[in-house]
Amino acid sequence: MRHATCCSVGPRSIRLISSSSVNRFRFPSSYRPNTRVVAKLPLLHRLEIWLKSLHPGRLKTLQHQLIDLLFPVDLEENRDVSRSFVKTPCDEDGNVINSVAFEVTNNTSAETKHVVFIHGYGASLGCFARNFHIINRFKGLRHNYKVHFLDNISFGLSSNPGIPSVKYWSPIPQIDHISLKDTSPTEKSKLYKKYYKLIESYDIDTEKFMAYRDTMTPLLKDLEQYYTDALETWRKNSGIAKVHALVGHSFGGYWSGSYALRHPESVQNLILLSPVGVERHATAVTAPLPTIPKGIKPSLDPASYSFLSRWPLLSKKTIYRWYNVQPYLPRLLKFMGPFGVSKYYDMWYSKLFAINKVIQKLGGEKVFTSENELRYGTNTECRLLVEYLYNSITNGTKSDTHVKYLLTPATTSKWPLMDKFASADKCILEKFQTHVVYGQFDFMCAEAGEKMVTEMKERGIKAQYHTVPEGGHNLYIQNPFGTNALLEKLVKEAD
Question: How far apart are CA 35 and CA 379, in angstroms?
Fold first, then answer.
């Protein structure tokens, strides 16, 4: 019997038929969704996680455990898939990018297509654990497939080099050239789509803005070179002529888009999962100087330079913590001992466990297409993922600082992705097809992604906008069923 999955795509709906390898899956009658919520870890378990995190090589051990759990080699459906653990040079200084790859050979005389996943900030390749078995969806096709999950440069088990122009232990340049006029700061009726508010007006100090722009623009270019050069060198050293599908999430989505624009000949399909920093806004370095700097009327349009995003909702405390606390907080977690483990567990466990409710919303047993998926939402899986992520983030990454240079406290990019695509020549954008994907309940500005796609289409460029149901910002974790089905469709269409 052939199983089918329905996936919402924008205002449309598509029916996805699974591959022959998945068709052999038979749902076990003994399966029951996990209802045993472990809201708080016992002290001994917290102490154990913390003590083990002090051992060198613990993250590598957890990476292997995660792969063994979510893609066990002894399962029938996982046979004929080879796994590899690789550290590939990504510059001339000996720095490397860590990756895990899954490969299936369908035809020894056919070429191999490469699918590459780039995670977001505060993550590592193990965040894609619920997507590892997507390789099985490419069995029986006319090409061979190799799916690479990368620790982006500075994250996980990859090297963590610095950028000479970034002063890591100096204050991060703050945005102080904009002042808001808001007479009703707590009036909820003025909120738009929960995160945005239309205030009376705002002022811009043009001299301070020009100084801010002159300071930030070269730093932003250095950041772009840092992430895109590392990925390009990894591609070359991996022997990949062209990436069939580059899948980037959030912070990784921003740099995946930047990479495709800098190296369009190296990408066939660009798939951005809830990318950060798409929208235009008043504090972007690409924003034109206002003709009337005082009493500017704001807009709720994320394609407008008078868009303020979440800025009117930010408290002084939030802005202070963004610049002065959050860049250093992840590496301080380990010094907090078991208490730090508890804080991190509280933040992540409920998000991972919530898939059990999603399974019920999507139809229970009808949503499953793979035996690998039966491990989703188990306490074993959720705890292992939390421990893996804790060990990853507490290792310390230069990107804790980079992200504060790139993003404003309102989580908008100082160099909007929408502007990068708008300024790119049409001949560059035509070299690859762009897909922008958001979760149904995404807190990122999905409207900006939709408008970027619209702008591209108006220029005659191939681009599509998609929505994954029951997903938020971490859609590939929250609804891996819908995410994997959509990715399968896009990869196969491009095949």
Answer: 9
Please, what's the b/e burial string for 285-308 (b: 16 or more CB within 10 A of its CB; e: otherwise)?
Answer: bbbeebeeeeebebbeebbbbbbb
Taking a C-beta distance cutoff of 8 angstroms, is the pair 143, 135 a contact? no
**pLDDT tens per residue across span 377-397:** 999 999 999 999 999 999 889
Exposed e or buried b per residue across 207-232, where buried means at least 16 C-beta atoms within 10 angstroms of its C-beta: eebeebbeebeebbeebbebbbbbbe
Whose CA is closest to 8, among 452, 441, 319?
A: 441
Kindly report, residue by residue over 355-364, the tens digit of the pLDDT.
999 999 999 8
- pLDDT surpasses 50 at 42: yes
Query: For residues 473 and 442, is the Cβ–Cβ distance under 8 A?
Result: yes
On whether the 4-494 domain is CATH 3.40.50.1820, my answer is yes
Q: Which helix (H) or strand (E) holds 53?
A: helix 43-53
pTM: 0.93
Report the C-alpha gap between 155 and 276 in whole angstroms.
17
Structure tokens at 417: 């992705």
Find out whether 490 and 269 touch, Cβ atoms under 8 Å: yes
Q: How far apart (Å, rounded) are the C-alpha atoms in residues 471 and 486?
A: 13
Q: What's the whole-number average pLDDT of the chain?
A: 92
Q: What is the 3-state secondary structure (H, E, C) of 386-447?
A: HHHHHHHHCCCCCHHHHHHHHECCCCCECCCHHHHHHHCCHHHHCCCEEEEEEECCCCCCHH
Tokens of 466: 């998609």
Concatenated DSSP letters of 85-122: EEEEE-STTS-EEEEEEEEE-S-TTSPEEEEEEE--TT
Q: Answer whether 122's CB lies under 8 Å from 474's CB.
A: no
Report yes or no: 306 and 370 within 8 Å, Cβ to Cβ.
no
CA–CA gap between residue 407 and residue 85 (Å, rounded): 32
Count of other CB atoms within 10 angstroms of residue 439: 25
Residue 392 near residue 123, CB atoms below 8 Å: yes
